[in-house]
Amino acid sequence: MRLAVLKERRAGETRVAATPETVKKLIGLGITAVAVESGAGLASGYPDAAYREAGAEIAPDAAAALAGAAILLKVRAPLAAGEGEVDELSLIPRDTLLLGTLEALGNPERAKAYADAGLQACSMELLPRITRAQSMDILSSQANLAGYRAVIEGAVAFDKGFPMLMTAAGTIPAANVFVMGAGVAGLQAIATARRLGGRVSATDVRPAAKEEIKSLGASFVGYEDEESKAAQTAGGYAKQLSAEFYAKQAEVVATHIAKQDVVVTTALVQGRKAPTLVTEAMVDSMKPGSVIVDIAADAGGNCALTVPGQAIVTGNGVKILGYGNWPGRIAGAASALYARNLLTFLTTFWDKDAKAPRLPEDDEIVRGVVLTRGGAVVHPQLTQAA
Ligand code: NAD
Question: Which ipTM value was assigned to this complex?
């Protein structure tokens, strides 16, 4: 059984899907050869030598890494023909188990290509958010680090500092930090901003989030009504709410936001463009030098003025950080956690006797992630949409 790890080639991707630590454990499972493409871990601080020391073989290129592979670990979807310098997809042997953030729901042609290539492809971002899956949950591990990193970058961009600084020359007040969206990323953003000494408040639409915000020592700011009491789906995500609700929420936020120094936005609604929570008028009301960090930029952004992928300064001197791939901005830690998530998935579905992965079709986790099997697209969200 040979397992391959490729260098990530998509623009801006700095992470890697296995680390020297997980390579050692993969070999411990009974995988006879782990082939890591040369330079795969460089951007996240894992040189070839560290993989070699862990027992991996370093392959000179993607073709060499993939020759004879039965499992492929990726961060992002493999490149298909015309997507970049190498047509990775054409190099993957049939029947390979492919694990990665494949984003196939938004790109159904991708799932079709995996089926045609005879792959067993698993889109790991579709993992159900259930207790048993927590240690394999790539969305949580990556969002957690994104929340941390966003506050750190916000603190650097803010030119006054977070804690109250009492000095002989006078006092600098603590920064007012407002976190919008208190899911995994937002809760970590609250905790990080508090550790840095900021005065932190937060908002969310899900009723459960209010207690979580308070338990981290932040104050809750928000609008609540009968509609928001049912704002959470069975899966724990926020629902799309009415225009009336969003208007009321915006009223409450508008007066609060004008007093903020740093605003971190993390709000997402599954399968849709991120909601606009910070309007142009709200940005206009903010003080020069204040900072908006938009973690939702990849999903279109929570701020009306966010330019995805860029940091900008508005006419009234507000900085808006709209970078994409926030976990990739803390690539060493993000790769370490992502790689452990994939390792846990493989370990959970590992047939010790056959020394091979076995993904039971009736398992809730397997059903959640498997896109293709036996040459066909099988994921219900894709087959029903077809
Ligand atoms: P997410 O990334 O989908 O969204 C981020 C946050 O934005 C959410 O808290 C959401 O309620 C909020 N939001 C959406 N619209 C908003 C608006 N208009 N205003 C303010 N906030 C808004 O969420 P997530 O971080 O992936 O977490 C979603 C849920 O899943 C949470 O309930 C979390 O506790 C749960 N979860 C469970 C597990 C598990 O049990 N394995 C793992 C991770 C997360």
Answer: 0.95
